[in-house]
Amino acid sequence: MTPRPALGQTSRRALRLTVLAATVLALGACQSARFGGPQRPVVATSPGVITTTPLEPGIAAPAGVVEAEPLAPPPGTGVLGDGLTQSDQIVSDVPSSPQVAAIPAPAPAQPRVSRTTFVGTWRASEPGGGSCRVTLSSSPSLDLYRASTSGCANEDLSRISAWDLRNDEIYLYRQGGAVAARLRASPGAMQGVLSRSGAPVALAR
After folding, report:
1. 3-state DSSP call for residue 8?
2. Which pLDDT tens digits describe the chain residue by residue (205 residues)?
3. 146 CB neighbour count, 10 Å cutoff
4. What is the pLDDT of residue 18?
5. CA-based radius of gyration for the chain
6. What distance in Å separates the CA atoms of residue 154 and residue 134, rounded to the nearest whole number?
7. 177 burial via Cβ count (<10 Å: 0-12, 13-18, 19+)
8. Whole-angstrom distance, CA of residue 37 vs CA of residue 60
9. CA 17 → CA 5, 13, 205, distances in Å?
10. Distance in Å from the first CA to the final CA of the chain
């Protein structure tokens, strides 16, 4: 007949098993706490900020908040002010086709006038409404040129005996050398006034 072990020896064996089981559980808890344990999926809390939680045992999750930064632009296209890039700046700096300024057309040349331009017979409009003829000659008379009239009722016109061109004006002279009329000269017409009365007078071809 085999003798039974004493009660004290059985209690010590049970105590060792209990301590061993507790140690194993403690080590498993430490390992689970160290490596994180199951984690939930990544959740974006706000634009540019991502929070993470552990997903699988044995993979350490980064602590804190991870900030996402925008990628740098490709080389040669650095960002400039107002959101422009260097490539945009290069395109904008390319000069456009030069615009050729319109060249104004030259003014028509004024006909050159001389004394010979006015030589001939003119029809004079008298102040009272009538008309007569005034002939300007190329024959010199002292330092002037001869002139004559026909059918003029006005006394100042009827006494014209000489004329001259000064700049762009025609001077008509009475007998004795006084100025009878002064007219603005052009090749086809002359307009002015009589010297004594100031009445208008015009000569036309």
Report:
1. helix
2. 445 545 456 667 777 777 777 776 767 655 554 555 544 444 444 444 444 445 455 555 555 555 555 566 666 555 555 555 555 554 445 555 556 567 777 666 555 678 899 999 999 999 888 999 999 999 998 889 999 999 999 999 999 999 999 988 999 999 989 999 999 988 889 999 999 999 999 999 8
3. 15
4. 76
5. 61
6. 12
7. exposed
8. 9
9. 17, 6, 147
10. 174
Instruction: Provide the token pair at 43.
Output: 């959740």
| Residue 199, pLDDT score | 93
Confidence at residue 44, expressed as pLDDT on a 0 to 100 scale: 45
Cβ-Cβ contacts under 8 Å for 136 (sequence gap 6 or more) = 118, 119, 120, 121, 122, 145, 147, 163, 170
56 and 47 Cβ atoms separated by less than 8 Å: no
Main-chain dihedrals φ then ψ at residue 106, nearest 5 degrees: -65, 145
Neighbouring C-beta atoms of residue 180, cutoff 10 Å: 25
pLDDT (0 to 100) of residue 15: 74
User: Which ranges constitute the DSSP H helices of the chain?
Assistant: 7-35, 86-93, 115-118, 155-158
Find, among 73, 159, 97, the residue nearest to 124 by Cα. Answer: 159
Distance CA 45, CA 55 (A): 18
Residue 164: C-alpha distances to residues 117, 146, 188 (Å): 12, 9, 17
